[in-house]
Amino acid sequence: MAKTLAICTHKGGTGKTVTALSLATGFADDGQRCLLVDLDPQAHSTIGIGLDAYKLSLKDFFERHPGLPLRDVIQSAPENPHLDIVPSDLRLAWTAEGLSGRPKKEELLRRSLRDVESDYDWIVIDTPPSLGVLTQNALTASDLVLIPAPAEARATNAIADLLELVHVLKGPGFDAYRILLTRLDSRRSVTNQAVMKALEPWKDKILDTVIPESEPLNQAQMARKDIFRFAPDSTGALAYRKLIKEIKTL
Ligand SMILES: Nc1ncnc2c1ncn2[C@@H]1O[C@H](COP(=O)(O)OP(=O)(O)OP(=O)(O)O)[C@@H](O)[C@H]1O
Ligand SMILES: [Mg+2]
Fold first, then answer.
1. What's the gap in Å between 102 CA and the centre of ligand 1?
2. How far is the CA of 166 from the centre of ligand 2 (A)?
3. What is the spatial distance between Cα 115 and Cα 123, in angstroms, rounded to a whole number?
4. Which residues are near ligand 1 (CB < 6 Å)?
């Protein structure tokens, strides 16, 4: 049975997509069967995985629900035999708006994933920078919520707001969430210390692995490659390898 990991925060540009792509490709490289679900209309994970041609996307799944099984939307990822993807496209933004009046709209993905979860060891969900219906679907479907937080002002506000939604959707006692420090620039030591102090209330939830600011991670996005193929010895690749090991212990 798959473990489902939602990578969420409504703060933009925190490394959600880079983390989703790195985890998904890393799990698959380890021989574990992985499904990457791109819930972001920006489709950055779909683009990043190198997928170009696909007929159906999550937009079709939500629009035709329950007429179109999720299985029909799943594509094989190029270059990685253990990795599949449910692609996204910009039109998903408008489809999501249309879901707003629908009862139990936040459960659509979770219920459909049940049909495919025995095919995978991991399901990794990339989400948009919002707390809307798409992120709500990701949270509802998840076993573990991963919150990427860069070491900068206002990172803590985003965590508090997101956790409020998490507890509404998953119950006040839900504690299977972890904070991942991302884009850490060790030269900004005063800022980093201040951020760590602000994160004190969640100190037990902060993962040991820290993702440094690492230019090859950015370049890999431009090249539409995962970091393990683009720059396997970079600090970014090493950090994401460590993260994969740590996530497997949770
Ligand atoms: N550790 C890192 N080092 C250097 N660049 C990074 C790192 N993490 C992410 N980036 C770059 O920062 C930008 C934002 O990262 P990413 O797209 O992963 O964030 P996001 O949270 O998914 O953004 P959005 O909220 O728009 O979906 C991208 O251009 C990415 O290549
Ligand atoms: Mg993204």
1. 32
2. 19
3. 13
4. 12-18, 40, 42, 44, 129, 182-183, 211, 213-214, 217-218, 221, 236
Total domain count, the chain: 1
Pocket test for ligand 1, best of 17, 130, 159, 225 (most atoms within 8 A of CB): 17
Distance 68 CA to ligand 1 centre (A): 32
Give the number of the atom of ligand 1 that is nearest the alpha carbon of residue 129: 25
Q: Is the pTM of this model over 0.85?
A: yes
Residues 144 and 176 sit within 8 Å (Cβ to Cβ) = yes
* 135: CATH: 3.40.50.300
CA distance linking residue 215 with residue 131, whole number of Å: 29
Confidence at residue 191, expressed as pLDDT on a 0 to 100 scale:
86
Q: Which ligand 1 atom minimizes the distance to the CA of 19?
A: 18
What range defines the domain where residue 238 resides? 3-249
Q: Specify whether the CB–CB gap between 16 and 9 falls below 8 A.
A: yes
Q: What are 38's two structure tokens?
A: 């791109």
The pLDDT tens digits for 117-149 are 999 999 999 999 999 999 999 999 999 999 999
**pLDDT attached to residue 100:** 82
Q: Which atom of ligand 1 is nearest to the CA of 211?
A: 1
> 183 φ, ψ to 5°?
55, 40
- CA dihedral 237→14→60→31, nearest 10 degrees, is 20
Q: For residue range 200-245, list pLDDT tens digits in order.
A: 999 999 999 999 999 999 999 999 999 999 999 999 999 999 999 9
